[in-house]
Amino acid sequence: MSAEPHRPRTLGELVASGYRPRTVKEELRDNLRRALAAGEPLFPGVLGYERTVIPGIVNALLARHDFILLGLRGQAKSRLLRALVPLLDEYVPVLAGSPINEDPLRPIVPQSAQRVAELGDATPIEWLHRDARYNEKLATPDVSIADLLGDLDPIKAATRRLTYADPEVIHFGIVPRTNRGIFAINELPDLAPRIQVGLLNILEERDLQIRGFPIRIPLDLLLVFSANPEDYTNRGTIITPLKDRISSQILTHYPPDLETAQQITEQEAWWRRDSPQIVVPELARRLIELVSVVARESELVDQSSGVSARVAISALELLVSNLERRAWATGEANVQPRLADLHMVLPALTGKVEMVYEGEQEGPEVVARRLVGEAAKRLAAERLPAIEKAAGSGGEDDTGPYSAMLRWFAEGNAVTLSDESSEGEHLGALRQVPGLLALAAEAAHASDERSLLAELALEGLHQHLKLAREDLDSRITFKEMVKFQLLKPHRARRREREEF
Fold first, then answer.
1. Class of domain 11-251
2. Confidence of residue 164 (pLDDT cuts 50, 70, 90)
3. Where are the domains of the chain?
């Protein structure tokens, strides 16, 4: 193990070492240039932004700009801001005991300047790690100027018997305490306009004044922000003078394709668990991702609010949890996803997807089921024979790949699938439908896809109005469409009599 490198501990040692001060933006620019020249990865773990957002951030840093990331929820804005920390030097020297991380060669507040004058080369030095040089604040309407910039501390004045005219009674806020670092404000429009005004001097003149004290504190900061687009929020706005002082505005976006979105979900979700009996084939993970894609296109979902990447992440985690529940309940050594399992991932949708008026009228769970159904329909279209053309009436003259199945259902047969049955019982139910498992086996890329593809075939027939589907909790029954439609009024009348 390598020994800790010797670092100067006094002002005299620091000067003798050849130390030269740099601003934070110069430091970030130098380290970024070095990383680019060495081909080092920037923002590891952030996918889909390689040709859009990341170049914009790099250009802003090279230009020494403060910047804002503008985009809908779940677009990795906070993650990108926190990923700036590795571009700072690992350690920087600060005056020991300084509340605002003052550079030993550039003391700011009178107390520090007086201390350096008294102690000279013996002034003690501390080293600040880069992790301690990043702070962020979630903007809320109750954030005050005192929180951000500072205020007078009456307790300090009383205990130390200081007058309010003494600069030592100042209590610095989080912004000056991040001096010589990176300060981020998330959801900037939520900050009250009068508080936003307090940031104007920091962005332009790089200084602040507290309660009329004649001390002007020149701050060395990179200020970064995140926000939803102004037109997409009802909670607030960014005042025009502040927008004018933020040098770069960088737009974020959702993943450009399904494959990238799926990579992000699989990277972020906790789905590889210590349950060896659980099998989550690529087909099931793709189905989960398609639900988010469908939601981002649905007319029932408020697209101005966005559909976060956390929808698919939470859904995949809930799917695996339901598989674990079934595995432990049945004691089986191989448990795979089913369409019935998707009933248990609906909480990931209903809690994160905001509806337009029409969607609210239908109800969150109804809309969530429709989104899952549309995703299953699209996946069936990708992997199975085209249902619209191939699935005819199911009569004797119908020879398409779904003809035997439709004739079987037309004879009054039905199949019920559940998330609680064993794998053997589940396959037995699917095996009742003539030709279903054979069709799925032909389309499967791996053996663990067969049963889910068989269910997708049934769901595809339902989505194309060839079969009826009846849901009861997490049990799904597929049956002939015509008889089901004729029975519906009779069942409705029976329910009315029972309720009466």
1. alpha beta
2. low
3. 11-251, 258-490
